[in-house]
Structure formats: C-alpha cells, structure tokens
Amino acid sequence: MTLVTSFRVGRLQCHALEGGRQRLDGGAMFGVVPKPLWEKRIPADDRNRIPLGLRCLLVEHEAGPVLVDTGIGNKESDKFRQIYGVENAGTKGPTQLEDALAEAGCKPADVKFVINSHLHFDHAGGNTFVEDGPTDRRTGEPDRLSVRPSVRLSFPNATYAVQKGELDFARHTNERTAASYLAPNFEPVSAVDRWNLLEGDGEVLPGISVIRTPGHVPHHQCIMVRDGGETACFLADLVPTSAHVPLPWIMGYDLEPLVTFETKRRVLGQAAAEGWILVFEHDPERALGRVVQDGKSFAYQALDTR
Ligand SMILES: [Zn+2]
After folding, report:
1. Could you say which of 24, 40, 142, 168 is the most buried, measured as most Cβ atoms within 10 Å of its Cβ?
2. How far apart are the CA of 120 and the centre of ligand 1, in A?
3. Ligand 1 is a single-atom ion; what residues have CB below 5 A from it?
4. Range of the domain at 245
5. What residue spans of 76-215 are helical by DSSP H?
6. In the predicted model, is pLDDT for residue 1 greater than 70?
C-alpha cells in the first residue's frame, strides 16, 4: 500500500502522508447529525467507532521540507491505543508517519519546519517520540524498569509553528478540554525553545501561510499552500473528512460549533470560488478533493472531475 499521495501546487511539490489510523465515536464525530445519515457515509464498528485517517502534509519548499501536523506519535499507553483504535506502527521509525516520509524521500532530520494546526494529541502527538530504553540482556525485551524513557523531538532540526493562543490554551485546560492536550506533545518543544509562535493570519514561508479558523478550538489554523495561481488548503479539524463538507455536519468535539459553522461558510465559500485543492486530515479514504457550491451549502467533488 502506498502511504503517499503526491500533487503539485504551482511549482511546489506536495505529498499527503498516511500517518496511520484511529477510531473515534461516530456520534461525537458528527455532532447533531443523526446516525442513520452519518453511518451511510462512514459505517461504525461494534463499539460505535468510525475509522479515521491520520493524514499529514509534506511540502518540498526551497527553504527545506515543511511538515504539517504529525499524527499521534508513539508515546501513549496500550490502553490509550486500544480506546482510540490507534494503528500507526512504523517499520522505519517510531510511527507510520516516518515510513510515509521515507516513501516521499524525506528523513526526519531533513524536516526544516513543522506547522501544527492545533495541539490536540492526534495532530501534534508525533511532534515528539519516546525512545526505547536499553534492552534487557536476558529477555531481549525493552528494560522499562531500569531506565526512564526519554521524550525527544521527532524532527530534531525543525522549527515548530503553532498559534501563540493555542499553546496558551493547551497549557490552561479545564475538565472539558484536558483529555485532548497532553504536555509531552508540546512542552519538549518549549524546553528547547523551538517554537515559532504565530499571531493570527500570516505567511510562514513564501507560498506557505496560515489562516485562523476558530470553532473546533479558539486558535485552530488551516495551512495554505499557494503558488502559480493555484491554492491548496490543509483543513485539519475545520472539515476533518469529506463527509463534513455540508455546513451543519460539525463535530460534537468542537468547543464552539456555531463559530465552526461561520468559519466553514467563509473558508469553503472561498475554496469553491477559487477551486482550491483540499486536504482532508481524517478522511479514511479520500486524501484530497475540492468543494462546489450546493444551494446554500457545499458538496464534495473528486479532484479529477474538475
Ligand atoms: Zn482536534
């Protein structure tokens, strides 16, 4: 199976990278949409969970490779991985993301910039990784008792970018938001002073910019790639799957769903008018697509039908 879907935006070579899978409650993923409607789009398992991708974006930029979001990483417990149905084991590195990067011809040490849409564990978990401790000489198993495993940056030569407000938000959680923000995903980046903290919309590199897209969380951002009159948008959790293109199909996880609604109306309106390529981070099948106006709402369109 290929882990890479490549496409071009003007002169910029881009790759959608399959970082693995997770499973989340279908009802929570579709908010107020009734199950008979959403299960036609993505069927649920016997625990009412639906399969979701952990897709990232790699842009080959003249300043160096730029990686957008980093999946779940390898730091979580077996219990956590079972609850969220995480399948992201790697053969060339800590996770499948490193395998996908290799398929795209990129080593973790090459990555020059990491941009996080936000700091939820399924978007920033792969910012860091845990190294196995030494092996027990008798059993050949990792010797977990004698050495505390150390968390390291997955991309040791990269600058990491996120909205300043999002880092503040991740550090000051309440009972509703705490489960999604795990400090080992972002504090090691702070510890080595590797954050480029963004404030609002703006260019990160020539051709790569961010737009604030609040709703899911207050400082969520989408990542824009623009060159030669073409535009691609990494939607992240603004529109996690192609099933979430219709305006009222909004996740129950979103902290401010009515804000998401207005953000979607604005962003998808521009995407439809300008024919943007859209990258769906969590869609289990469709990495890319476009949207077209559909009455007052929007509909998904496959990329090659334009
Ligand atoms: Zn999220």
Report:
1. 24
2. 5
3. 120, 237
4. 4-301
5. 78-83, 96-103, 121-124, 164-171, 187-191
6. no
